[in-house]
Specification:
37% of the residues lie in helices and 16% in strands. The chain has 421 residues and is of the alpha/beta class.
Length: 421
């Protein structure tokens, strides 16, 4: 719940307003008050009131966006929401804080310009490839990131004020959310998972440093004004205020010319199967086994040359296509159950054979969601590397389609965020 009041409203008037608007929250249980020239935030139990002295919608909002650089999934989620916001605010100004290259962000965001601060806003996990985690390097990265963490919050808070941010949107940087609270700026989390779950899953919380990091992460998330949880989400009770929204993704366009682009003969009706581990080129694709499986055309996402075969193709042959259009144009997908792939195969009703990464705590949530809403099947890592895909794919392709879902989470998020602008 968010309401906008004049910043000079006296305490008596504010208490009366709370009694009227929040009923059960009439008693002031403020956990903290932050004063700023342009904003006054009161945290009152579960109700947060933002006083910005504004009574009309801001037609040119300045939105500071913090995006995890752990893969491309967080970027894709955020871009979907930003695109939906751009339909409401053509003149919005964006500053994107993300360690990914500007070209990668721009390719997904499209025509809307943005300022780019290429800095890490969280750690996530250090992975040499999409299926494995480098635990020692991850620990080192957290140690560096959490050095003088309180000072980092202050620094980011000052940057937000200097830039004139109206709101912070974070997927899922806890540093950005803590900085927003310090600067008395609404901080909105877009969270299909949170990094405290990842730390707990991979490391010993009894280790002194790990325990400290874990507490700092959770405390920072609790400072969020609101968390938007796109289905399927793993978050728990860390956020004080949440709204559940539909799955968030950028729709792909199905293009029948994909077969011509790959050079297939007109009488070749074999199904196209995209083999991808989240849009990131990987060596974890069993191409030797695929060479022997000629019942399908395999489109593999990897950065090395394939042996010549008429049924083997690389994603490089479709280099001018957005990845989402490639996925929307194939007949089936094999990969890992990341959020983005799960939602896209559901949206396009594609058979999906997948293998898990191991300790990733959101995978049970996503796997259960896939079982309910898609034609999907999990195989073991051993079956993956042995290339045992053909029978599962044939089985799934014969199954009836699942009832459709609403995939308008980005539009829902934009509507909710608009209430803070």
């Amino acid at each position: 719940m968010a309401d906008y009041l004049h910043p000079l409203m006296c305490c008596r008037e504010l208490e009366e307003y709370i009694a009227e608007q929040a009923d059960g929250y009439a008693r002031l249980g403020a956990s903290g008050c932050f004063f700023d020239d342009s904003a006054l935030i009161f945290r009152i139990n579960q109700v947060e009131l933002f006083a910005h002295g504004r009574f009309r919608m801001n037609s040119s909002p300045r939105i500071n966006v913090a995006i995890s650089a752990h893969g491309f999934g967080h970027l894709t989620q955020t871009v979907a929401v930003l695109q939906a916001l751009s339909h409401r605010y053509e003149n919005m100004t964006l500053r994107i804080q993300c360690a990914l290259e500007r070209s990668i962000i721009a390719a997904r965001l499209g025509k809307h310009d943005f300022e780019h601060e290429r800095i890490p806003m969280d750690v996530g996990l250090v992975q040499p490839d999409p299926l494995n985690v480098d635990l020692s390097s991850t620990l080192e990265a957290y140690a560096v990131f959490h050095q003088r963490f309180d000072q980092k919050i202050k620094t980011e808070s000052l940057k937000l004020k200097d830039w004139g941010a109206d709101i912070v949107l974070s997927d899922i940087s806890y540093l950005a959310l803590a900085a927003a609270a310090s600067a008395a700026i609404p901080g909105i989390a877009l969270a299909s998972l949170t990094w405290d779950h990842i730390v707990k899953a991979y490391f010993d919380l009894d280790a002194p440093k790990v325990h400290d990091w874990y507490q700092q992460i959770q405390e920072a998330y609790r400072l969020s004004t609101l968390a938007l949880l796109p289905e399927p989400a793993l978050v728990g009770q860390i956020f004080e205020q949440v709204k559940h929204i539909a799955p968030v993704y950028i729709p792909g366009q199905r293009k029948s010319i994909i077969r011509d682009q790959l050079g297939l003969k007109t009488d070749d009706t074999r199904a196209l199967v995209l083999c991808s581990l989240g849009g990131i080129a990987s060596a974890n694709i069993p191409t030797e086994a695929m060479l022997k499986q000629r019942d399908f055309h395999w489109i593999v996402d990897m950065d090395r040359t394939l042996p010549p075969a008429d049924h083997m193709h690389t994603i490089a042959q479709l280099a001018d296509w957005p990845y989402r259009d490639i996925l929307a144009s194939v007949d089936a997908v094999i990969g890992k159950p990341g959020y983005g792939t799960a939602v896209e195969v559901a949206a396009h009703d594609l058979p999906f054979v997948y293998t898990r990464r191991g300790h990733f705590p959101d995978e049970p949530i996503i796997s259960a969601w896939l079982d309910r809403h898609t034609r999907s099947l999990e195989i073991s890592n051993a079956d993956w590397f042995a290339g045992n895909f053909t029978q599962p794919l044939e089985t799934l392709r014969e199954k009836p389609r699942k009832p459709g879902l609403a995939f308008n989470g980005a539009e829902q998020a934009a509507e909710i965020i608009s209430d803070f602008l």
